[in-house]
Specification:
The protein is an alpha+beta fold. The protein has a single domain, classed as Cytidine Deaminase, domain 2. The protein contains five helices and five strands, in the order ααββαβαββα. β4 and β5 form a beta hairpin.
Length: 183
């Protein structure tokens, strides 16, 4: 069928689609779809159907690469994360374990802290990669920090070979504790 073909990798049309998708994510974040300020809201499922082509390959690849640097000598459970900024930059992190597990730092928080410390403050999505068959979502602490600093971003969960799930952070953290509760 003419017009239904997926644009070739690296083609100008594919780059335009990716730019439009990134711009839509930023616009959604800035236009009020960021649900942190809502007093009553429901989680939003990302509609993967329709004409939008999701290209998670670069973001997932960055998370896979970051995973190779993980320091997981106690659990051997290596995780990589890649956080995308509004400008399309990707900042990656890996988990770093400590003998006292309470001091262990998750990959998602490492990526977030790196991004914040480099002056980035608007994010569109995060990819989390682990070598598991089932999706491995961010832990509770990571969900809380991602909510606080990123809002209702898209979360892409993948293993080493494929994307396993794509959802909004509000689906993972349906009743967040945030600044609106402190007012």
């Amino acid at each position: 069928m003419p017009g239904s073909e997926k644009p070739r990798e690296g083609s100008a049309e594919r780059r335009r689609q990716q730019r439009r998708l990134r711009q839509r994510r930023v616009r959604d974040r800035r236009s009020g779809r960021d649900r942190r300020a809502d007093s009553a809201w429901a989680p939003v499922t990302i509609d993967a159907a329709g004409s939008v082509t999701y290209d998670d390959s670069a973001l997932v690849a960055a998370a896979i690469d970051a995973r190779t640097h993980a320091r997981a000598r106690f659990s051997n459970f290596k995780v990589g994360a890649a956080l995308e900024t509004e400008a399309g930059e990707v900042i990656a992190g890996c988990n770093v374990e400590n003998a006292t597990y309470g001091l262990t730092m998750c990959a998602e928080r490492v990526a977030l802290y790196k991004a914040l410390s480099e002056g980035r403050d608007v994010f569109t999505r995060i990819a989390v990669v682990a070598d598991t068959e089932e999706p491995t979502p961010p832990c509770g602490a990571c969900r809380q920090l991602l909510w606080e600093y990123c809002g209702d971003i898209e979360v892409v969960i993948a293993n080493l070979s494929e994307v396993k799930a794509r959802m909004r952070l509000s689906q993972l953290l349906p009743l967040p504790f945030d600044a609106r509760l402190l007012e």
